[in-house]
Write a structure and sequence with these properties.
There is one protein chain. By secondary structure, the protein is α+β, with helices and mostly antiparallel strands. The chain has two domains: 164 residues, Ribosomal Protein S5, domain 2; 128 residues, GHMP kinase, C-terminal domain (Alpha-Beta Plaits). Helices cover 35% and strands 21% of the residues. It contains ten helices and 13 strands. The strands form two sheets. Strands 2, 3, 7, 8, 9, 10, 11 and 12 form an eight-stranded antiparallel beta sheet that branches. A hairpin with a 6-residue loop joins strand 10 and strand 11. The chain is globular and about 60 Å long. The termini are close together.
Length: 308
């Protein structure tokens, strides 16, 4: 049996709308992401298990991972031996943690290994982006690429090989908190402005390019100081109950940044030591999470998708 784990990710990474993403690794060693198992079978089979499986369509044909299998079989490797594919769904859908990307990335990674097709990095990323687009409404790379490659990635169609990994500070801790309710990605995109003014466009370009330059030259404190999302956060914040309160409260107890992970409703905070991260997580547990929510203190997952 081949088992592939794909980690959760922070899309947009505050300053990089649809362009920056970071893979997450909880400090406690837990797997924050999806696992896909592939094993030989008499005929192609598909199963969906795990804590969040019940929230996915019951019909296999409607499951994104099954659709990836059908596509791979038809267009990538028709000669692939029959396979039993099992999606272990460990991330909630509509969480803002790249849940659909996890399913897609883990599935194609498992099939690529099972069929020994040895697809290139760009072939894999393009294949994954096609199916992520079925959920998000567009071919966005900022969850797919970090989920697959790990780390903090600058990613877009015009980026060579679709990915440039940026260095990150080893002092940064990432507190992620899923409040326990879903936010539909399409709805979260629908509230965004259809266009930006010239001033807003120039400021976005300046902020993102400056952030990338500062991170690339390891001027991490300065990079952190300019992190601000004026493109999506002001509009999506209103859809996320409790976010405004967290945005106000967490900096007072040590957070250097508070922003929305992907389309939300998960938020993430960056702290520069474990003590402050622990205090922020406790506040979130007490004030942001319902009985279905969870939180983690993380570093970045530099390994990306990998065999278990």
């Amino acid at each position: 049996m081949i088992s592939m784990y794909a980690p959760a990710s922070i899309g947009n990474f505050c300053v990089g709308f649809d362009s920056l993403g970071a893979a997450l690794a909880p400090l406690d060693g837990s797997l924050l992401g999806d696992v896909v198992h592939a094993e030989a079978a008499a005929i192609d089979q598909f199963a969906c298990v795990g804590h969040y499986a019940e929230f996915l369509p019951s019909a296999a044909e409607e499951n994104l991972a099954y659709q990836c299998l059908a596509h791979f079989r038809e267009l990538v490797c028709p000669s692939m031996p029959a396979v039993k594919l099992t999606l272990e769904k460990r991330l909630p859908i509509g969480s803002g943690l790249g849940s659909s990307a996890c399913s897609v990335v883990a599935t194609f990674a498992a099939l690529n290994a099972f069929a020994q097709t040895q697809l290139s990095q760009i072939e894999m990323i393009e294949l994954m982006a096609d199916f992520e687009g079925k959920v998000s409404g567009g071919r966005h790379y900022d969850n797919i690429t970090p989920c697959y490659l790990g780390g903090l990635q600058l990613t877009a169609e015009l980026v060579p090989n679709r990915a440039i990994e940026l260095p990150v500070s080893d002092k940064w801790f990432y507190v992620v908190a899923y409040p326990g309710f879903a936010l539909n990605t399409a709805k979260a995109r629908s509230v965004l402005p259809k266009q930006l003014s010239m001033h807003e466009s120039v400021e976005f370009a300046q902020r993102l390019s400056t952030f990338v330059a500062l991170m690339s030259t390891q001027r991490f404190d300065e990079a952190l100081e300019i992190m601000r999302d004026d493109v999506a956060e002001p509009y999506r914040a209103e859809l996320i109950s409790g976010f405004a309160q967290a945005k106000h409260a967490l900096p007072k107890i040590g957070a250097k940044l508070v922003s929305i992970s992907g389309a939300g409703p998960t938020l993430f905070a960056i702290c520069d030591n474990i003590e402050k991260a622990t205090q922020c997580e406790q506040w979130l547990k007490d004030n942001y999470l319902n009985e279905h929510g969870f939180s983690h203190i993380c570093k970045l997952d530099n390994a990306g998708t990998r065999a278990l």
